[in-house]
Amino acid sequence: MMVPLDPSAKPTSQRRIAEGDTVVVYERHDAMRAVAVRAGAVLQNRFGVFRHDDWIGRPFGCKVHSAAAGGGGRKGGGKGGGFVHLLAPTPELWTLVLSHRTQILYIADISLVVAYLELVPGCVVLESGTGSGSLTTSLARAVAPHGRVCTFDFHEQRAASAREDFEKNGLTSLITVAVRDIQGQGFPEEHTGAADAVFLDLPQPWLAIPSAGTMLKQDGVLCSFSPCIEQVQRACEAMRSCFTDIRTYEILLRTYEVREGALKGATTNEESNAGPLPQKRRKLVAPAETLDDIQNSSCVMVRPCSTARGHTGYLTFARLRVHGG
Amino acid sequence: MGGLQRTPRHQRRRSPRLLPPHCRRVRTSPCFSSTSSFFFFFFLTVKIGNRTCSLQPLVGRPFGSLFSVGPSGLVPCADAPSRDDRMQDAADGPVQDETRDNRSLVDNNTAQNLSSDDIEAMKRDGVSGDEIVEALIANSSTFGKKTVFSQEKYKLKKQKKYAPKVLLRRPSTRSICETYFKKSPARTGFMRVDALSLLLSMANVGPYSDVLVVDMVGGLVVGSVAERLGGTGYVCSTYLGSAPISIDIIRMYNLSSDMTSRIVQAPLSDLCSLQNSGNAPSLLNDNIQGEAPETTAVPVENSQPSVPQPADTAISDEKAQSSKEQSIDIDISEPLLDEHINQDGDSSLDCKGDEDGSSIASKSLKAGKTPSPEKMKYWSEHGFSSLIVAAPGHDVESFVADLLPLLSYSAPFAIYHQYLQPLATCMHSLQVSKLAIGLQISEPWLREYQVLPSRTHPHMQMNAFGGYILSGIRIHNGDACNGIK
Question: Where are the annotated segments for Disordered (chain B) (predicted)?
Answer without folding.
Answer: 1-20, 78-103, 296-328, 341-372
